[in-house]
Amino acid sequence: MTNNDIFKKLRVAHKLRDEDIVNIMKLVDFRISKSELNAMFRREDHPKYMECGDQILRNFLNALIIHLRGPMPKKGEKKQPKKKSND
């Protein structure tokens, strides 16, 4: 299984659009364009196919964790409990 396959499966599993992925990648200060993403999601035999490198996948995974869980608290800080709304 290639990095591209993993990236595609995560995209589908989390129902992410290109814009969502671009914004998620910004959480770890990694800039990627929609056209670069589309190139990674193409079939391998397509002329504009681009291989997803380890750095891109690593940054996406780290950003996805922040997106889903929130930023990691700094040492010495306690995580703030979520407030319940009384609506």
UniProtKB/TrEMBL annotation:
<dbReference type="InterPro" id="IPR009921">
    <property type="entry name" value="YehS-like"/>
</dbReference>
<protein>
    <submittedName>
        <fullName>DUF1456 family protein</fullName>
    </submittedName>
</protein>
<dbReference type="Pfam" id="PF07308">
    <property type="entry name" value="DUF1456"/>
</dbReference>
